[in-house]
Design goal:
Elements (H helix, E strand, L loop, with lengths): L6 H9 L1 H27 L4 H23 L1 H10 L8 H16 L6 H12 L7 E4 L5 E2 L3 E8 L8 E8 L3 H13 L2 H7 L5 H15 L2 H14 L6 E2 L3 E4 L3 E5 L3 E3 H5 L6 H24 L2 E3 L7 E4 L4 E3 L5 E3 L6 H11 L5 H7 L12 H5 L11 E2 L2 H11 L10 H4 L4 H20 L2 E2 L1 H8 L16
Parallel strand pairs: 5-11
Antiparallel strand pairs: 1-3, 2-3, 3-4, 4-7, 6-7, 8-10, 9-12, 10-11, 13-14
Length: about 475
């Protein structure tokens, strides 16, 4: 038993490790049985692709059913896999979408007494004096913590202000590390769901990113950096940090409509579609420019993290997952992006010269494997749709696509740059769910180093 000063909550979390392990261990067994059954039907003449998609759908349903019960690190994995949901064939995506909806709406809140104890530990016994009002009912509950609406006391001569108080669940770090260690042992199940992806590398990256989300002081630093660099921007708003500690973060409250509300229904009028396109354009401009302006990139592509404020600005929240790019997007990636966008036949050789392709079969074709993801950069504007995103997914993550011709296995990017590509794909999925038309190429030309100069002149990249 671990005694870390957090009492019974942590002991219950640690005591549940065996139960979580048992549920996670059941995933490979279930997937193996379905895989064997599918093999038998193929041997009897069933259509391989249809049977493969059927198995993917059943695997998806079981994986997310278990992840939804586990919460913690398992929930973080499910939320990350949501990035790829729009890349799946429709019959496979539906189980993902239904399970993810349950996953993201059934998190249990902490009791008020537990919230008060965490606040006392993190802000001091007199924490109540810091607030003119505090709502014990959470405004939102996530896998690692929950958010409460409150009013921060300005003190003498200062105005009170509405704030969002983010409180971490006691024992979240213990449960997270336990779940992630167990999830690494199920990587082959994810490989069956998305065979073109390196499941183990994905789990490693999720583990590193999610562990960083446990430190709210680090998150506060990233949020302050964004707020300072983007202050005065007429299109974007980042809430100011009011106070922070390792497990509590207090920020200015933003009133707005999350993009998640838009993603569940289509626009019904031309004016509504124009507003969506405008907001999406501001978001894309922010994502392309923030590495150069801030040295950071928001790395949690979720429509709930983007708000449309009453004054029309785009509000960005939740900076727990951030990619650090102190020198902006590397110029060599910008050059490769431009070559892919222009269908340059030399892009594969250029990627090999830069050290991004390590295979020695000679069969790699970077343009065929990932070229469609450069579609938004080919013309002045691009229309993001779910149908387009699924076509890309069929090529990149499908067991029947080009990924199994060797290119995916030969791609070798430094970890921090692979994360950049994952985040980019995630934000494209968000835009596809919104069904918007955006001037992406202009943003790349303005903010991505090397995009205007598609000549690879570096023999290798730093690892």
């Amino acid at each position: 038993m671990i005694d870390d000063g957090r009492g019974d909550v942590t002991r219950r979390v640690v005591g549940g490790t065996a139960r979580r392990g048992g549920r996670l261990a059941a995933l490979p067994l279930g997937a193996a049985g379905r895989s064997l059954a599918g093999w038998g039907r193929r041997a009897l003449g069933g259509d391989p692709e249809a049977l493969g998609r059927e198995a993917l759908a059943r695997n998806a349903e079981q994986v997310f059913a278990v992840l939804g019960e586990l919460k913690g690190g398992a929930m973080k994995l499910g939320q990350t896999l949501a990035v790829f949901e729009t890349m799946m064939p429709a019959e496979v995506a539906e189980p993902y979408r239904e399970a993810l909806t349950r996953l993201q709406t059934t998190a249990e809140p902490m009791p008020a007494a537990t919230v008060h104890r965490v606040l006392a530990e993190q802000l001091g016994r007199g924490w109540r004096s810091r607030f003119a009002a505090f709502d014990d009912e959470p405004a939102g509950v996530a896998s690692l913590g929950q958010v409460h609406r409150a009013v921060w006391s300005g003190g003498r001569g200062r105005d009170d202000r509405e704030v969002a108080v983010k409180v971490q669940h006691p024992g979240a770090d213990v449960a997270l590390r336990s779940d992630l260690a167990l999830l690494r042992r199920t990587s082959w199940v994810l490989a069956r769901l998305m065979p073109g992806l390196d499941a183990r590398a994905l789990l490693d990256e999720i583990a590193d990113r999610t562990a960083a989300e446990l430190d709210y002081r680090r998150e506060a630093d990233h949020q302050r950096a964004h707020a300072a660099a983007l202050a005065g921007d007429p299109e974007v708003c980042v809430p100011a940090v009011v106070a922070s500690s390792p497990r509590v973060l207090v920020s200015e409250w933003l009133d707005g409509v999350p993009l998640s509300a838009w993603s569940i229904r289509p626009a019904t009028t031309a004016a509504e579609q124009a507003e969506r396109d405008r907001v999406a354009g501001a978001l894309v401009e922010l994502l392309f420019s923030s590495p150069a302006r801030v040295g950071l990139l928001h790395a949690d592509p979720h429509p709930g993290n983007v708000l449309v404020l009453r004054d029309g600005r785009v509000g960005l929240v939740d900076f727990g997952a951030v990619a650090e790019l102190p020198d902006g997007v590397p110029a060599v990636l910008g050059r490769l992006m431009r070559m892919l966008a222009d269908d340059d036949p030399g892009v594969t050789a250029a990627a090999r010269a830069a050290g991004f392709l390590t295979g020695d079969t000679g069969d790699e074709d970077l343009g065929a494997w990932v070229g469609g993801m450069a579609d938004p950069l080919r013309d002045e504007t691009f229309h993001f749709t779910e149908a387009w995103m699924r076509r890309q997914g069929h090529r990149v993550v499908s067991p029947f696509g080009a990924a199994h011709r060797g290119t995916g296995r030969s791609l070798d990017l430094p970890a921090r740059w692979m994360s950049l590509l994952r985040v980019t794909g995630g934000w494209m999925s968000v835009l596809a769910r919104l069904d918007v038309t955006v001037p992406v190429r202009g943003c790349a030309e303005a903010w991505v180093a090397g995009f205007a100069d598609p000549v690879i002149d570096s023999p290798a990249v730093p690892r």
